[in-house]
């Protein structure tokens, strides 16, 4: 292993480019194996964000080390040398040279130098794939939003859960002495019974009669999520004027029939997320529900697959075991987003890991049976408030990113101390703290209105999954072209005369 301060040979693939010397930074000891810096690939060029601003925003360890020309006499000062060309290419085209070390990428960022010490680089390490994903999001001015399902966006019930809720309310009514509370409980039970009647009709006959009008099922084909899934067609019945959808998790098993109430103003929030065909947020789901149930609930919420592409659904819908805590690192596996760039919409705070709680916008639990007027009593519905919060967070995040991080990055030189770097922008800076124990209408004795995690596992049978053997294929790997032959700028870059950087700020 190389010790910092020692010369390392730099390769792009198998092509030797020259030698660089690693210079230590405070409290870090990044080491390159076998005194070799092997560049695996060059990152995509950035449309608007300097690579240093992206890495400073997503790296947990800031600069790991600095690389500069070797002090030995064999360094080639020729302005056409491969290392000079690499530096110039990365510098002017806003790219990085990427070295793979285990599960991490080390990004070599070409830096300007006050002392004309070219080629010189700063090195950052991030999980594999995170830089490319973050670069794409930051260039598009896009953040991530993570939704809970039950009692945040929907309330769902089976026949069994309706029976349990009605039985619990009956017992409470019998022992209630306050006539006002008793009246409220009776009203709540009537709503449960009305929906139970609809669900019973649907489960037994594939139609419902509501308000003297008959509604029949429509067969909806579920998009294939992978080659390992069967084609699934579900009998679905929608009552849009009531925000009710009836579906069957397993189309072959009527006991898995579910009545789902969608939270009012969901369409308003959904429209904001994808207004004018432009994604303001990458959407994810994190729930404690069973997987088939969660996938179907999301399909009902996003039937056109506008928020999450069906090909990405299995990666973007994350199911947590009952009793475990939710985690953004678990949601963003494979380096698809950094937690600093994510806002969470959930009706509960404490189900999230402590470090993620500052990024949670807590909404009141959706209670269409206990408090049906709660969603419309306020001037702004709950999900419209969530939309406004997301809008404000996004605006504040990118304002801070542009004015504090991106703008200051252009004044940083290779020789500068890393302690003076601007701090990373974080969604949590723009979310107000929320009450962790929000209770609908202040009533601590409200009966849970939907299915809980364990019941979903017990009641809803998994669809059988067909395993299809994938034919193995061997990928053709082409070695990277030699940087010596690339048509790259031959002169050393100088920050003071770099109009592209200044124009990118406008």
From TrEMBL:
Molecular function terms, GO-annotated: RNA polymerase II CTD heptapeptide repeat phosphatase activity
GO cellular component: nucleus
Enzyme class: hydrolase
Domain FCP1 homology, residue spans: 138-389
Origin: domain of life: Eukaryota
Gene3D superfamilies: HAD superfamily/HAD-like
Chief location bin: nucleus
Keyword Cell membrane assigned: no
UniProt xrefs under Pfam families: NIF
Keyword match NADP: no
Matches recorded under InterPro entries: Fcp1 (IPR039189), FCP1_dom (IPR004274), HAD-like_sf (IPR036412), HAD_sf (IPR023214)
Transmembrane intervals: none
Catalysed reaction equations from the record: O-phospho-L-seryl-[protein] + H2O = L-seryl-[protein] + phosphate; O-phospho-L-threonyl-[protein] + H2O = L-threonyl-[protein] + phosphate
Protein keywords: Hydrolase, Nucleus
EC number: 3.1.3.16
Localization per record: Nucleus
Protein name as annotated: protein-serine/threonine phosphatase
């Amino acid at each position: 292993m190389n010790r910092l301060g020692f010369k390392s040979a730099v390769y792009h693939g198998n092509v030797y480019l020259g030698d660089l010397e690693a210079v230590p930074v405070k409290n870090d000891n990044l080491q390159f194996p076998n005194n070799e810096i092997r560049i695996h690939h060059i990152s995509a060029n950035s449309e608007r964000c300097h690579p240093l601003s992206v890495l400073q925003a997503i790296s947990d360890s800031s600069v790991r080390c600095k690389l500069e020309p070797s002090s030995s006499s064999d360094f080639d000062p020729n302005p056409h040398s491969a290392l000079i060309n690499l530096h110039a290419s990365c510098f002017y085209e806003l790219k990085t040279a990427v070295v793979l070390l285990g599960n991490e990428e080390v990004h070599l960022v070409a830096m300007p130098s006050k002392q004309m010490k070219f080629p010189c680089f700063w090195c950052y390490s991030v999980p594999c794939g995170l830089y490319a994903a973050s670069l794409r999001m930051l260039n598009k001015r896009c953040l991530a939003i993570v939704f809970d399902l039950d009692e945040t966006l929907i309330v769902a019930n089976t026949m069994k859960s309706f029976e349990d809720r009605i039985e619990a309310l009956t017992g409470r009514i019998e022992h209630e002495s306050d006539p006002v509370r008793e009246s409220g409980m009776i009203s709540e039970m009537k709503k449960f019974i009305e929906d139970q009647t609809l669900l019973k009709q649907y489960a037994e006959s594939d139609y419902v009669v509501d308000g003297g009008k008959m509604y029949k099922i429509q067969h909806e084909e579920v998009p294939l999520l992978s080659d390992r899934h069967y084609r699934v067609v579900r009998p679905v019945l929608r009552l849009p004027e009531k925000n009710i959808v009836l579906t069957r998790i397993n189309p072959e098993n009527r006991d898995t029939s579910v009545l789902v109430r969608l939270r009012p103003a969901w369409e308003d929030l959904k429209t904001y997320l994808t207004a004018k065909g432009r994604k303001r947020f990458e959407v994810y789901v994190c729930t404690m529900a069973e997987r088939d149930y969660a996938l179907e609930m999301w399909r009902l919420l996003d039937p056109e697959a506008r928020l999450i592409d069906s090909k990405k659904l299995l990666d973007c819908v994350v199911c947590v075991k009952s009793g475990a805590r939710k985690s953004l690192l678990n949601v963003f596996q494979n380096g698809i987003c950094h937690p600093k760039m994510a806002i969470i919409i959930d009706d509960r705070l404490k189900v999230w890991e402590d470090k993620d709680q500052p990024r949670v916008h807590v909404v009141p639990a959706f209670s269409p049976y206990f408090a049906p007027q709660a969603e419309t009593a306020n001037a702004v519905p709950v999900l419209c408030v969530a939309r406004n919060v997301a809008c404000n967070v996004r605006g504040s995040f990118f304002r801070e990113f542009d004015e504090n991080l991106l703008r200051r990055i252009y004044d940083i030189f290779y020789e500068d101390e890393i302690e003076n770097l601007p701090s990373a922008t974080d969604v949590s800076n723009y979310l107000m703290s929320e009450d962790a124990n929000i209770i609908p209408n202040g009533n601590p004795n409200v009966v849970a209105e939907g299915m809980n995690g364990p019941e979903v596992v017990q009641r809803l049978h998994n669809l059988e999954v067909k395993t299809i053997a994938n034919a193995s294929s061997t990928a053709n790997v082409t070695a990277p072209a030699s940087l010596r032959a690339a048509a790259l700028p031959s002169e050393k870059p100088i920050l003071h005369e770099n109009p592209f950087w200044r124009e990118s700020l406008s």
